[in-house]
Specification:
2 copies of one chain form a homodimer.
Chain A (H helix, E strand, L loop, with lengths): L1 H29 L6 H19 L2 H12 L6 H17 L4 H23 L4 H19 L8 H9 L5 H24 L15 H15 L8 E3 L5 E5 L2 E6 L6 H19 L3 H5 L8 H15 L3 H15 L8 H7 L14 H20 L7 H13 L24 H20 L2 H6 L3 H13 L7 H9 L6 H15 L2
Parallel strand pairs in A: 1-3
Antiparallel strand pairs in A: 2-3
Helix pairs in contact in A: 1-2, 1-3, 2-5, 3-4, 5-6, 8-15, 8-21, 9-10, 9-13, 10-12, 12-17, 13-14, 15-16, 17-21
């Protein structure tokens, strides 16, 4: 098929742009000098816009429409590719290169204003940019040919197709009740957990060595990746054979790095185990955020915070971190990494309260998008919700509404984190039916788990939409119940309720 | 002037490509995972070729020719820009995008073959690529409109205009005699220098901290740069406000990193102090390699290996590297970093024998380019020259002819290193007339030196060709005498001859 060849040629060129942009973005977040960032950001905007021009060119549009009309003649993977492209075509066909450049500038400015507002603990420095982001996202939706009637659903759909606000309202309502109930039982428990050693000094080079040990243990392949540092840890899927992990070392909070590395390593292991054919057919980036978070949070929590994993790594922990931790038993380490305590910061939250942080953001997004609250009043609402759901007072906006980067351009992203937890709780039940994964952890056979994930979870992640994917693995649909059950069992044992 | 505006527009776009390529190349050399390199290299080739297409487009050629004809109407800096572009236009106007892509592939393949040959200590794995590189460079020269009659001069001219083989033959002949004479006196000396502590273990994190101390001390600005690791250290002029230094830490050879960092830091300090107007007028990368090496080797040797500098850094050296070096006196450290001993590896050579390594390469390049020796016989000639000039036997090609990367695409580069030494010896005399720079070093006032360099050495480096530049600073022309005098004085004191 000549048109398919033509499409592949263009996709190959677009992939070169994405590759270059991936490298530049990684550079920007990890090593670019302070005074070089503005310039680097402009260069990225330029190439992103060039890429947009190719992807949205008349020739490309024609190819997509023509191939979509002949979809039944295509192979299964090519049909998925053309479906993806057609859906994106409907979203973007009315967007001009000028508007594309404009929106990128709005997001870049929002990022800079957000950094400054956070640094100065002054929300008013971000207010106008936040409004501009909301306006830009609305404008973008108004240009879509396939817009959904509910404004916010369009943004949710960008990150997690098939899981829209009707579903989410029920999901979060049940999740919230369940989490608050477990939290209540924990707070009523009089079991004391030792946490004093968590703030002991561990120099960066020791943390770095331990991080590499953990990544190797979990099956991360350093020949197809790298580990380096950044301000806000992320994983970058730069190209085939290039999935990189970043972290942030705090010398007086070693646990922060450990779980950051395990979490990001989970994303990277997912990337390193996508089927080769998905890459060859240009559908390798079709995984949703919820699916991705299900895997990263599986590694972080289901594996990383399990009794069996602590049993596995404890000897190496003592060996590498030295005598300063000689007074800490395996059980004390396990309990310490599972302390539940309502707090201000999402990324530092425990497994139980984490979901409440997400629910607050979900509610805030709906309120702001619909105009029910004005952006200038957003901090007030934020603080009110934190008091109501988590019982904490927000001392200033830098640890409140300004803590996360997402609202500089990605409304609708937050729910993915909570959905991810629910997904993995559902497929972990299925895994447990196949083999004793807890034994695999304490035996150090993490590869048994990765193999199962590869065959069951990773294989169709690019090829199916979330609901169909989850059903194909488990025969079930999205529900917070298995996750709540997992939490209840785990913390009943720890907190003895 | 409309045409100048048009030119600037195109140069701005070309600068974005160079910026992207600079970031990718830095990524490739510092962090790109092993299995991702081939792909990354292909993406770089793609964008390099796109850049070539723009720079060599009919529109661009027309603009250059037209502006060159009206050069007298341009400002001084724009006239330099147009001169540079016109010279390059004559070199490249007959090169097709296909040939450009082809030559990049030859160089990329040569690099891969070289790595493999070096790793396997087997020159035959590199032989064919070496021949292909030579053939490609010859073919490229045959396409030039402004080719010089002597083949090798064209390659020399790419790196150091105005300093061609006639000049160099005399220069190197005098340099060789002088170096051999000094070396003879050193070898005849019975002064013993202690070097036992040079191989003591210093962990990487300590070396890294000390490297940052040295760079800060020398005036390197980390807000406009970064320090990271690589296999073969280099400095990268990625963009305005972005001059990055790389190094390689050997835990049992801390001195290697110290002088690598000071050397590369010298390049970067040069880059960080180019006049802003040079950047605005797109002449900021016009500095030759010889000029650049004059500065980096000035920092490495004239400053870094001086008695005064060792006096300055000794207390911090003892403080940071700890008790293991408590038995090493300041004088012993000074002498140890100045041990002269003929050896196999150029990059590890001392100040005296370094030039002999360069002369061998210069002679080899002329022999290979002219066809007087065949590439398969090159190792034999190499080994013969090492025995003759340095008195050392080459055990295998990985530490012989395969030690340097340059012949994978940059014939004519090596002489710059030796020329750089000669340049800085000439302008250091001039500096010494203005102020006591040795006192400035021991007082820790390195900025007095950078200020002088900025005003005298850096200012016109983009604007003048080497001979004119050196004359404008010193009123002198290239000669090895001041460098030989500097060496003789320094080593007569150390080795007491």
């Amino acid at each position: 098929m000549e048109k398919l060849d033509e499409l592949y040629k263009k996709l190959n060129i677009m992939r070169k742009y994405s590759h270059a942009l991936g490298i530049m973005s990684f550079d920007f977040e990890t090593i670019a000098p302070e005074n070089a960032r503005e310039n680097e950001s402009e260069t990225m905007d330029y190439f992103a816009n060039e890429l947009f021009k190719i992807s949205n060119s008349d020739e490309m549009k024609e190819l997509i429409v023509d191939l979509y009309a002949e979809k039944d003649k295509l192979s299964a993977l090519d049909a998925i590719l053309v479906d993806n492209l057609y859906e994106n075509y409907l979203k973007t066909k009315n967007i001009t290169p000028e508007f594309d450049l404009e929106r990128n500038k709005v997001y870049s400015k929002a990022y800079i204003d957000w950094l400054s507002a956070k640094g100065n603990k002054d929300f008013t420095l971000f207010k106008d940019s936040l409004q501009a982001v909301i306006d830009t996202q609305k404008k973008e939706i108004s240009l879509r040919e396939n817009a959904l009637p509910n404004l916010y659903d369009n943004l949710l759909n960008d990150f997690e197709p098939q899981i829209l606000s009707d579903t989410l309202d029920n999901f979060f309502s049940e999740l919230k009740d369940g989490l608050l109930s477990i939290l209540g039982k924990i707070q009523a428990s009089d079991h004391a957990i030792r946490g004093d050693f968590l703030t002991r000094y561990v120099p960066i080079h020791k943390q770095e060595k331990f991080s590499k040990y953990l990544l190797n243990l979990n099956g991360y392949d350093f020949k197809r990746g790298a580990l380096t540092t950044t301000e806000h840890p992320f994983t970058s899927d730069i190209a085939k054979n290039d999935a990189r992990v970043t972290t942030h070392y705090y010398e007086n909070l070693f646990v922060s790095n450990i779980y950051s590395v395990i979490h990001e390593g989970g994303h990277a292991i997912f990337m390193q185990n996508e089927p080769d054919e998905d890459y060859e057919h240009f559908i390798n980036d079709s995984i949703t955020n919820g699916m991705h978070e299900s895997v990263s949070r599986f590694y972080e929590n289901v594996i990383g915070r399990s009794k069996e994993y602590i049993h596995l790594i404890y000897p190496e922990f003592i060996k590498q971190f030295g005598d300063e931790f000689g007074d800490v038993s395996e059980k004390e380490l396990y309990e310490a990494v599972n302390i539940v305590k309502p707090s201000l910061i999402r990324t530092e939250a425990d497994e139980v309260t984490y979901g409440l942080h997400i629910i607050i953001r979900y509610e805030m997004e709906k309120l702001m998008l619909s105009g029910k609250i004005k952006v200038e009043d957003a901090p007030k609402t934020w603080n009110k919700l934190y008091k109501e759901y988590l019982g904490v007072d927000v001392p200033d906006d830098s640890v409140g509404i300004l803590q996360d980067v997402h609202w500089t351009g990605a409304f609708g992203y937050f729910p993915s984190y909570a959905i991810g937890n629910a997904y993995n709780a559902i497929y972990t039940k299925k895994m447990a039916e196949s083999f004793d994964y807890k034994k695999a952890i304490s035996d150090g056979n993490i590869s048994l788990i990765s193999d199962w994930l590869k065959e069951n979870v990773f294989k169709n992640a690019n090829r199916k939409k979330p609901k169909d994917w989850l059903y194909s693995i488990t025969g079930e649909t999205l529900s917070p119940k298995p996750f709540l059950e997992y939490l209840n069992n785990k913390y009943a044992e720890i907190y003895k309720f």
